[in-house]
Amino acid sequence: MSQLTTHLAELLVLTLTRGSLYALIAVGFALVFGTGRILNLFHGGFFLLGAYAAFFLSRLPPLSLGGAWRQVLLTLLAAAAVGVFGFAYYWGFLRRYLSRPIHLMVIGLASNLLVALLFRAFYGTRAAYVPPIIPGTLRIGSIQVLGQEWVIVLAAAVLFPTLSWVLRHTRIGGAIRAVAEDPKGASLVGIRPDGVLGTTVALAAVLAGLAGALAAPVRVVTPDLWTFALLKSFTIVILGGIGSLRGTLLTAYALGAVEIGCISLFGEAQAEFFAVLLALAALVVRPRGVLHERAS
Amino acid sequence: MSEPAEVGWLTGSGSGRRRAAGILLLAFTLAAVGLAAPASFLADLVGAGCILAIMVLSWTVFCGPSREISFGQAFFVGGAGYLAGLLQVRCGLPPWTALLAGVVGGALLGFLVAVLTLRHRGLYFSMVTMALQLAAYHALFLRSSLFGGEEGVLGIQTLAVTRAGLYAVAAAGLIAACVAVDAFLHSRWGLLLGATGQNEELAQSLGVNVPRLRLYGLALSGAVAGLGGALYVLTQGQANAELASEAISARIVLAGIVGGLWSLPGALVTAFGLQALQAWLFRAVSVDALIYTSVLLALALLLPRGIVPIRPHWGLSRPGRPTGSAVAGGSEPAAAASLTTGSAAESPASQEGLVVSGLVLRFGGVRALDGVSLEARRGDAIGLIGPNGAGKSSLLNAIAGNLPGDARGATAVSQAQEVRWAGRSLRGLDAAARARLGVRKTFQQVMSFPDLTLAEHLEVSRVSCAGRAAAGDPALARLIAAGGGDATARTPLGLLPPAAARLAEIAMAVAAPPELLLVDEPFAALSGEEVEAVCAGLETLHRRGVTLVIVEHRLHELFRLVDRVLVMDRGRIIAVKPPAEVLLDPVVQQVYGIVERGDAA
After folding, report:
1. pTM (two decimals)
2. How many CB atoms lie within 10 A of CB B254?
3. Which of A93, A140, B129, B216 is 20 to 30 A from residue B21's alpha carbon, by CA?
4. Which residues, numbered 263 to 302 in chain B, qualify as contacts with chain A under a Cβ-Cβ cut-off of 8 Å?
5. Residue A237 domain flag
């Protein structure tokens, strides 16, 4: 019995850690898409900025001393910084192009390239190292799971119930849901759709920045990291559809499970390809998402 | 006819002769560069620019008119490039055959995209193309033995041995691409694709076969991109994964948008400009690509319509189309008199008119139509009145074949639907197919192609039904349209008052063979004078022998136009009367709430 059970447990753990990271990355992207019906392709850039913000903060003297709490603090600071940036990005930039969703895609894509090039120009392509919050590894069965990966799982476990509560029970959460349902209707009852969208973009930036800062210690941080984040967000939103937080989270973990299964059977390259193919098939057959349901 | 001066120095607009001159000029310039400075840095630069320009043109040819934004151009470029390279290396094909295979392969990939995106528009089209590019890119890493992984395919035999030869190949490729793209943009396919991009529903109601049109456009786009990709691979001697990456797609999209969506010169100028910028920067320092992307982004932001925002004119400046000149002199009665029943005088079977029997239409639990039957002979003019929600518009839509619901996911179940026109069942035909049979509809909300002129509207209508034996009636169409303005004017219809668009709509319906016209509230939102103009247009149609079914709330004007009035209520026809008697009918009075008043009096 033990071998099979251990193997399954391993797969489960791997799915959990992978899925949690995917969920953290994708949820903001899905939220913005659902609220404003725009694809903010700069989401990958938010993730990248989070990772680099954590890196640069970790080299500042007071924070560079190390220790779990300092690391937590710098992770949160990085997320907040990206949030502020996202807010400014929306009001200074995105908002002017809301009526042209496709133009917006082009701008997002170009912004990604630009930010990546900025880091490349001023820091180079060498990998940036960020120390983890919990160093070392934890052994489960035959696999080693990094302490930082447990932090990611923990962050997801704390964050998503909170987010769900915010969306359901607060004023801004109600406004976001109202605009997602019908921007015109929302504006008739005194909600400014573009203002709400600004808040959503900032929130998405915080989440993506947090994901980037948390993932920095376990991933190789290079200027091209934005493609990873964008690809995963894109895939999950296509598969999961828009309009429900639950759907996005479910899809993120499901994608993690599929990839882990694929990797254990075939290999990393096959898993990447299969994930994209899945998204393509979903997009062609059900453009509004496999799990599409109305926000309620 | 005096035309404003145009910027037609290079195929952007203007007559065919001027466009041909533009392409010739380009060819001479390229030849001059090749001869004056063979195997120089400049020639290499221009050669690379040619290949980039081909890729940008491939984007412009479909995305310009259709207003879609393809993020998957690297899918075509990479797919065709790898195909050509692999065929050359693995199968030992001669380079020129491999190039041809690349072009054909690109066209097939375009075909694939058209099939996959039958129902995808706008954002969703962009997303599918993006996903395709990503899938292709990741597929390259699946079998390193075949695709060579990160390294790519190496050792490909090139199309020419010398640098000068490679330059000549690239330049010739660009000229070929220019000719193909220019021919398409200025053909009736280009015009129809442009119209479809502006208002797909209207184009469909005119009989445009949208899926086929997009298929042609995408296949050409794929073929041209394939030419670019295969040329790149067969001049560089290698294919690497970069060719299928999102960076290539992004560069092409940015250059396409910056160049101006419709414009061939814009695309060329941008491509060469970018190539020069890139070459200059890469020779300079390492901050290279940063500036490059910033410049692109800034251009895209500052010039949302591109640097040369011209769109083509479809050769309409050419005078002397036979029917066109007749209008200028002919006054309305004369024209109408000469236009006896043209298309109606066919075989006896087609003398049969409109027959609707037992039509039932349900939206969920609501019965929008509850067993409607009606008959109209050819040339009849029927009015359709009734309170709001009676099912008048639903009836017109059911006849025209554009039932709402399918698109929005609401379930429109039509049972026992039997609509016949001219002895033919319309069952199973979509709006475009019905339009090609002569069943056309105008919409309750005024519809137009906002960027096209009136003359172009008529041209869209005329060519959308090409292939039918009976010709339309451009003379009549212009006559009707003249009520709303000058048919030769160069003002886009989007800038004219709604009455002009309404008249254009009616005129478009007859620029192709007019047979049955379903008119939904033609007078809505028009002023008194405008109503008169539209009325006159409809009367002309009636005299011409077109069968009319008109829904309208302005009874006074309606009764002047029609021979019979059908009254509908709650999905049923409750009365059929001549106009003079209809309001005296007790059932009608009850529906309209006239009964009490009548009793009181």
Report:
1. 0.82
2. 25
3. B216
4. 286-287, 289-290, 293-294, 296-297, 300-301
5. no
**Superfamily of chain region B349-600:** P-loop containing nucleotide triphosphate hydrolases (3.40.50.300)
For residue B30, give the amino acid letter: L
Q: Which is more confident, B306 or B451?
A: B451
Cβ contacts (< 8 Å) between A120 and chain B: which residues? 289-290
- For residue A240, the one-letter residue type is G
Nearest CA in chain A to B130: A280
ipTM strictly over 0.85? no
Structure token digits, residue A214:
């948390």
The answer to whether B253 contacts A106, with C-beta atoms less than 8 Å apart, is: yes
Domain B8-302 part of CATH 1.10.3470: yes
Q: Is residue A135 part of a domain?
A: yes
Q: What are phi and psi of B546, to 5 degrees?
A: -75, 135
Torsion of CA B425, B429, B430, B436, to 10 degrees: -70
Total domains present in chain A: 1
Residue B572: other Cβ atoms inside 10 A: 16
Helix (DSSP H) and strand (DSSP E) numbers for chain B: 25, 11
E strand or H helix at A270:
helix A268-285
Q: Which residues of B touch A278 (CB under 8 A)?
A: none
- On chain A, the residues whose CB falls within 8 A of the CB of B126 are 102, 105
Nearest CA in chain B to A237: B127
d(CA B72, CA B67): 15
Q: For B500-550, write each residue's pLDDT tens digit.
A: 777 777 777 766 666 888 888 888 777 777 788 788 888 888 887 888 899
First and final C-alpha spacing in chain B: 62
Q: Is the CB of A238 less than 8 angstroms away from the CB of B127? A: yes
pLDDT in tens, B576-590: 888 888 888 888 888
Q: Provide the residue range defining the domain that includes A138.
A: 25-223
Q: CA of A197 to nearest chain B CA: how many angstroms apart?
A: 18
Domain-wise residue ranges, chain B: 8-302, 349-600
A296 in a structural domain: no
Helix (H), strand (E), coil (C) string for A61-101: CCCCCCCHHHHHHHHHHHHHHHHHHHHHHHHHCHHHHCCCH
